[in-house]
Amino acid sequence: MDRDYGLDIDAIVGHIDSAPTLSFFFPRLRRALIVDMRQGPEDGPYIRVLPMARSLHERLRGLKRARPHLPKATELVAIPWPIYVENMVRSGVWARVMKRIESAGSPDAMSAAESALTELRAIESQELTALIQGGQYETIWAREPG
Known about the structure:
By secondary structure, the protein is of the alpha+beta class.
């Protein structure tokens, strides 16, 4: 267990190295990073930032719709990431994701992964700005004037 993040980074890395399909979900951002390493004649690895699904079954159905040329995914490793996106980079998790994608030999997948990280950073920045400015958040209680 990594004390800085409260996540078992070793277990996460193990899943990155072996699972055919991963979903890192970011509850604060209501988004998920989907990394589907399955490939076929018409399909390379699939890396996208998508809205969070309501269930794993919903996510698997969505993958089947997005990748109709591949057999239905039978497993999906879901990894909650309740902390900042940048912690994926600092912890080495992102480097491991990129190494796995690079091993597939797909420049398009590498580019998609870089774009996904940029997108997640932008979404998080927007969310933090909204939090500071009070855009979509409400005060639960206020200080008594006094």
